[in-house]
From TrEMBL:
This is Type II secretion system F family protein. It is found in: Cell membrane. The keyword Coiled coil applies. It is a multi-pass membrane protein. Its main location: membrane. The keyword Coiled coil applies. Residues 115-236 form the Type II secretion system protein GspF domain. Keywords: Cell membrane, Coiled coil, Membrane, Transmembrane, Transmembrane helix. Residues 195-222 form a coiled coil. It comes from the Bacteria. The chain crosses the membrane at residues 61-90, 223-243, 249-273. Pfam families: T2SSF.
Length: 282
């Protein structure tokens, strides 16, 4: 890459940083301007439209945009093809992360539901009525909550509805709630005491999982940082005038090194993240 290409990349990065900083400044100034009556309805509508347009751009499409930029700077179609190939991979990672966050929200909703239900039973309500009142605490369960509340309202099979809802990722704690419900109804045992013990166990499990994830965050960050070192090497080579992009994209040896390096890089990142995920699962 020539000095002009390096300068263009630096200017593009600086412009992106300035746009982000300007956006943050506008968000901070919004309450002040709103209080002073200086924000017009048209400006507010424009900002909402920009926010919606930005929100529709998924993270995976930035790989294609980055590949297009590198393709222009390196005068080769190879980076564009690699960026397009990275779109489904990044989409898969994003969806897995969204599924994990959704599971965590369901797990938190189960804990909240157990605590609220135990409190209502302690207050003297019958189990069915207590479940209807405490149902708002389980809003994070989503559509599964409707079936449970319907069973409680119309005298249906509440444990069966809880077991059906427990099939959703993150809602496995509802199996314990179903067991407590059956024991309380069939044998007359104290429902509140069982729910309190169940809530404590679920909360301890969640805290343990969060502590483990925090301990493994350093290893995950290190793997990602090491994966980004080749990019730093390309930037340093460009700054020194070695034109690494031209060598990699326009010579046979460079293309071979690019293919081998990409395979080894991907295998290394996959293995490191697999080790981290294995530790989390255990």
């Amino acid at each position: 890459m020539s000095a002009t290409g390096v300068a263009a990349a630096a200017c593009a990065g600086g412009a992106a940083w300035l746009m982000a900083a300007t956006g943050r400044g506008l968000r901070r100034a919004r309450p002040v301007l709103a209080g002073a009556g200086e924000v017009t309805a048209g400006d507010a509508a424009w900002r909402r439209a920009m926010a919606r347009a930005t929100g529709r751009v998924r993270h995976e499409w930035w790989a294609l945009a980055g590949g297009a930029v590198v393709a222009l700077l390196g005068e080769s179609v190879v980076p564009l093809v690699l960026g397009a190939a990275g779109v489904p991979l990044i989409r898969r990672v994003r969806r897995a992360r969204e599924a994990r966050l959704e599971g965590e929200r369901r797990a938190a909703a189960v804990i909240a539901l157990c605590g609220a239900l135990a409190g209502e039973v302690r207050a003297g309500r019958q189990p069915g009525e207590a479940l209807r009142v405490a149902g708002a605490a389980g809003a994070g369960l989503g559509a599964a909550r409707a079936g449970v509340l319907a069973a409680a309202r119309f005298g249906g099979d509440v444990p069966g509805a809880l077991e059906e809802a427990a099939r959703e990722p993150g809602a496995q704690g509802l199996l314990g709630l179903a067991a407590c419900w059956r024991v309380a109804v069939d044998r007359g045992a104290g429902l509140a005491a069982g729910l309190e013990r169940l809530e404590g166990a679920l909360r301890a499990e969640r805290d343990q999982r969060a502590d483990l994830r925090a301990q493994l965050a350093g290893a995950r960050s290190t793997a990602v940082m090491l994966a980004g070192l080749p990019v730093l090497g390309l930037l340093m080579g460009s700054a020194l005038g070695a034109a690494p992009l031209r060598v990699l994209l326009h010579t046979g040896a460079g293309l071979g090194c690019l293919a081998a390096g990409g395979v080894l890089e991907g295998a290394g990142v996959w293995w490191a993240l697999r080790v981290v995920r294995g530790a989390e699962e255990r």
